[in-house]
Amino acid sequence: MASDLLGKYLVRRLGDQVLALPITEVEAYDGFKDLASHASRGITERNAPMFEGGGVWYVYFVYGMHHMLNIVVGEKDYPAAILIRGVGDISGPARLTSFLKIDKSFNTKGAKRQSDLWIEDRGEDLVPKKILKTARIGVSYAGPVWSKKKYRFLIREN
DNA sequence: TAAGTGATCTCT
DNA sequence: GAGATCACTTAA
For position A157, what pLDDT does the model report? Predict the structure, then answer.
């Protein structure tokens, strides 16, 4: 479940520093039928990481300037990933990758400490979190059905 | 609201 | 190889 990521921490090691920021916003891209997903037309060189099974990063470059960070989920050969759109006070998937210096060097890498970018469940959220569900952002190309699926999840209002 | 920017995808 | 598109951001 994509919303399970909300409240977990995205941890980034940058040299001596380790930054841990709570995940506040995500979007799910699920399977071949999801017309908003890069994998809806099958495997390509770019989306191949989505087919590798859970636990690896899928990082790609769009609009000539922005990197997007996804964590691959699901079984091998079934394309599914969760786009991390917000952490801490940073909102927007490209701002997040810019701030944490995440680029394609993480693509296909395991989300483990050794890769200097991973996810931790710190179980600190004692307060029940309010999860909002909305349609995904920037996917109007996906047609009337899939562009409206409520696959975007976020904590806290505003 | 539109420009910026370049990788990638889908045809020829 | 060419043309279109794009899971966005910023400045106006």
Answer: 55
Confidence at residue A152, expressed as pLDDT on a 0 to 100 scale: 98
Distance CA A137, CA A74 (A): 22
Taking the model in full, what pTM does it have? 0.95
Residue A77 CA to residue A80 CA, distance in Å, equals: 9
Quick check: A47 and A39 in contact, CB under 8 A?
Answer: yes
How many other C-beta atoms are found inside a 10 Å radius of the C-beta of residue A49? 21
* Distance CA A114 to C1' C9 in A: 31
A36 touches strand C (CB under 7 A): yes
Which of chain C's bases lie under 7 Å from a protein CB? 5-10
Question: Within 7 Å: CB of A152 and strand C?
Answer: no
Where would I find the beta strands (DSSP E) of A101-146?
Answer: 117-120, 131-134
Q: Report yes or no: A9 and A23 within 8 Å, Cβ to Cβ.
A: yes
CA distance linking residue A56 with residue A12, whole number of Å:
15
The Cα–Cα gap between A154 and A86 comes to: 8
